[in-house]
Amino acid sequence: MERAKVVKEELLERDMHFLAVYVEAKNSIMIMLSEKEDKLGTMAIAVPKPKDTLGQVTSSVLLGDKNVISARMFAEYVAAKKGKIAVVSVYLDKIGEIQAQEFFMHLIEKVMKNEKEKEPMPA
To answer: Residue 82's Cα: distance from chain center in Å?
Structure first.
């Protein structure tokens, strides 16, 4: 039985730390994006369309209301790219949501790239 893959990444921009925790299971992915420290924030879920169906990814906000645009956007992006259910949490303290999107997108690309190089966590 294969276990979930876990990747942690960090980015320093404008003297601020942006963090990502990526967990990938067989049918789903969860990503926590945060500023300064690992925290749960506004959470969205996205479900990809089946491969033989036309249309876009569907998403909903599960928790919070502060960073709804980013949480849904990133969840939809990950679900479409990976073809799995995606849950994304976005927590911001000092920087605005729009300003942080570029840094978080960079982190998402980084963790998805590094995920291929990581081994599953031991049982």
So the answer is: 11
Torsion on CA atoms 32, 9, 110, 84, rounded to nearest 10: -30
Query: What pLDDT does residue 2 have?
Result: 81
Q: Give me 85's structure tokens.
A: 């259910």
HSE of 58 in the Cβ direction (CA atoms, 13 Å)? 6
What do you get for the CA distance between the two ends of the chain, in Å?
9
**Over the stretch 26-44, which tens digit does the pLDDT of each residue have?**
999 999 999 999 999 999 9
Look up the pTM and report it: 0.87
CA–CA separation, 55 and 70 (whole Å):
21
